[in-house]
Specification:
GO molecular function, one term: pyridoxal phosphate binding
CATH architecture of the largest domain: 3-Layer(aba) Sandwich
EC number: 4.4.1.13
Oligomer: single chain
Distance between the termini: 50 Å
Number of strands: 12
Pfam families: Cys_Met_Meta_PP (PF01053)
Bound molecules: pyridoxal-5'-phosphate
Strand order of the largest sheet: 1-7-6-5-4-2-3
Cofactor: pyridoxal 5'-phosphate
Organism: Sulfobacillus benefaciens
Radius of gyration: 21 Å
Number of domains: 2
Length: 379
């Protein structure tokens, strides 16, 4: 079965009890236990297992090529659950331009629970190797990274990790399994903010974690049921519905992003466009090799003569907001949004200037998007 077919024909396709073509939303918190049966029951209490959530968990495990998936109340809850696998004194090596929320968790885990973290430029594999010590337990990667879209070699990181017996974790939010499957490239754990492209309609907050080994499955099962940050049945259903159209949405959004990136790249007043789909992007070839496409997120430097306020207030279609991966185009300002908690110097060091805008390209008609950017840039 090809991946596009798998998006439609998976654990969610037909309800085994009724034949319904859309999975039922099971609100039950508890399930009747047959008093005289010694068979273990699949469903006992919805914090440990809920039928609607289970369908989502099976579906994402299948799509990522893992053996088990876990659905949480947000991307951050999924990421936090994965970090509970580590102990005080353990050391992690992490992508430098990491999602802001993940940096905040790591800061708290460092200050209060003694987890050690080193941020590295993950595109420089020598830096990765140089920081591995006796307490290093894992390498945590985001590729493409946010917001400058640097590309990390997933196979190479996995092979470095294997030779030092380290776990590898990838946040695959920007790509989704439609474009990139880190478990197939040797990674152990994948995490997602399903809020973004997977659910795809800016109408749900959800997180997922997928693992490849029975040992990690057992560990995360315990974390999910005891810490309890589970995804509810309605949001599980919305995420499942989003996944069915992931392929067509991604194809269209990516096609639009390629055209918008080319337009901005040729614009005389735009000095820099960050997008792995452009041939001058340093990670262009690597991205082509390890993923099925460059995705639908790009960043660019607004011309110095134009303020962010002037530009975004002239845009007619794109909304100005945090988040990404919706059907609508979303323009964000990393310096005042996702990276606001960093110092100005730390932001400059990773290329997050005050004029940098990130665009999550939606599925509108590209002619309208380009016309809109044109009038806002040239006003
Ligand atoms: C949004 C996002 C998260 C956090 O997910 P939530 O669903 O907002 O909790 C984590 N990683 C990346 C890359 C994100 O874009």
């Amino acid at each position: 079965m090809r991946f596009s077919t798998q998006l439609i024909h998976n654990a969610s396709t037909i309800d085994s009890a009724t034949g319904a073509a859309s999975p039922p939303i099971h609100h039950a918190s508890t399930f009747h236990q047959s008093p005289y049966s010694d068979k273990p029951q699949t469903f006992v209490y919805s914090r440990s297992k809920n039928p609607t959530r289970s369908i989502l968990e099976e579906t994402i495990a299948e799509l990522e090529g893992g053996i088990a998936g876990f659905a949480f109340g947000s991307g951050m809850a999924a990421i936090a659950a994965v970090f509970t696998l580590f102990s005080s004194g353990d050391h992690l090596i992490v992508t430098r331009d990491l999602y802001g929320g993940t940096q905040q968790i790591l800061k708290q885990l460092g200050e209060r629970y003694g987890l050690k973290v080193t941020y590295v430029d993950m595109t420089d594999l020598q830096q990765v190797t140089a920081h591995i010590g006796s307490r290093t337990r894992a390498i945590y990667v985001e590729t493409p990274s946010n917001p400058t879209l640097t590309i990390t070699d997933l196979r190479a990181v996995s092979s470095i990790a294997k030779s030092h017996n380290l776990l590898t974790i990838a946040d695959d939010t920007f790509m989704t399994p439609y474009l990139q499957r880190p478990l197939e490239l040797g990674f152990d754990i994948v995490v997602h903010s399903a809020t973004k492209f997977l659910a795809g309609h800016s109408d749900v907050i959800a997180g997922l974690a997928i693992v490849k080994s029975p040992d990690l499955k057992t560990q995360l099962e315990q974390v999910q049921v005891t810490w309890g940050g589970i995804l509810g049945p309605d949001d599980s259903w919305l995420t499942l519905r989003g996944i069915k159209t992931l392929g067509v949405r991604m194809d269209r959004a990516q096609q639009n992003a390629l055209q918008l990136a080319a337009y901005l790249d040729n614009h005389p007043r735009v000095s820099h466009v960050y997008y792995p789909g452009l041939s001058h992007h340093p990670g262009h070839a690597l991205q082509q090799e390890q993923a099925r496409g460059p995705g639908a997120v790009l960043s660019f430097e607004l011309p110095p003569a134009l303020t962010v306020h002037e530009f975004v207030s002239r845009l007619r279609y794109a909304i100005f907001a945090v988040s990404l991966g919706g059907v609508e185009t979303i323009v964000s300002h990393p310096a005042s949004m996702s990276h606001a908690k960093m110092t100005s110097d730390a932001r400059q060091a990773i290329g997050v200037t005050d004029q940098l805008l990130r665009v999550s390209v939606g599925i509108e008609a590209i002619e309208d998007l380009i016309e809109d950017f044109e009038q806002a840039l040239n006003h």
